[in-house]
Amino acid sequence: MEDEQDRKEALAELVAFLQQYARRHPGSSKDAVAKAAAQHFKLKCDRSVYFCDHFAVRFSASSKSSFPGTVLGLSRLCKYDHLPFVVCVVRPTGTQLLMANSTFIDKISHSSQSLSHDKIRGSFNGTNIIRNFDGLDNTVENFEALFALHREIGFEENYARIVENTLAIRARGAKFSPTTAEQSIILSAAKLAASLSQNSDYIELGARLASTVEQNRDAILSAATSDNVNLRGNAIEQIITRAGNLHRTEDIAERLPTGVIVYIDVKTKLMGRSSNPAAYNIDKFLRLLAEGNGVFSFFFVGMDVQARTISTRLVSCLDTTILLATRVQPHWAGRNSRGGTQLSGDLSPIFAPDYRENVVEDAGRAFLQDLLVM
User: Fold this and answer.
1) How far apart are CA 223 and CA 218, in angstroms?
2) What single string gives the DSSP state of each residue in 183-222?
């Protein structure tokens, strides 16, 4: 808790220093601003990144009101993505500060030919920094709120999205365009999900997953102590699925005796902490449902490390509580892409012992229809 307060105070001090320096030294060069900040905060320099225990900052220059230049390599950002990463744009008229953690990067330069899910390559430009995220402008007043959102997503999920968006620059037509028949199949998933809510096989599936968690309680609680949300989630997911992280929409696919396939995405949550995890890529989600006779559910694992308790819940993505918490993030979209979704509402009710999944067919169908017309 003390480290967190120190981080907040250090970031606030950085913002205040850079703003005051710009006022007192108009027309300063990028190098002059960087040198002054480095001396004041005793920053270390790792090539073009200045950093300390509480934040990292990249100084860039632009003579225009826009900011089109190259900022940083993605592999360099990865190294400091656990800290607030600030870009200070130095102009003749003053400075502009932007939060540039991976959550706020839409894609990498189209020249990044070697970029893939296995190779971190390429650099992002100033134009690739998202200026408004989840209704929050990317300005110093919102830095703390923006960084809190970023910490609950982490680099790996963002990287998978950035790769898809970057490749879509070259591979036009990435947006899924279902046929009329496929649209009908997608919309029918709402009725199918509603019918499963009280299905004994579906309920038993949730019980089996909960049993797997209970059998691995110590390992899961140990993994839950990690401060890195990305590493924490990956480790717990691997314990539950007994497999590596495959970067698919679903972590588990289970076929019920009726033939219905339940696609399951494992989501972890530290109880008592706010979280805004990324949910799913909309185009991939729709493609999955278009295959037919399938539904998509989340398996939530809520952990209280101090109390050493774990709560779980298998719940449809079309459940009323989940729909209320689901936000579409179009600014994460690459060219010809619908973007992604994020779970940013209150999910605590689903962990109540008496909670029962509730899928309203009409509401679920309307939600799917809205995704289709994006």
Assistant:
1) 9
2) HHHHHHHHHHHHHHTT-HHHHHHHHHHHHHHHHTHHHHHH
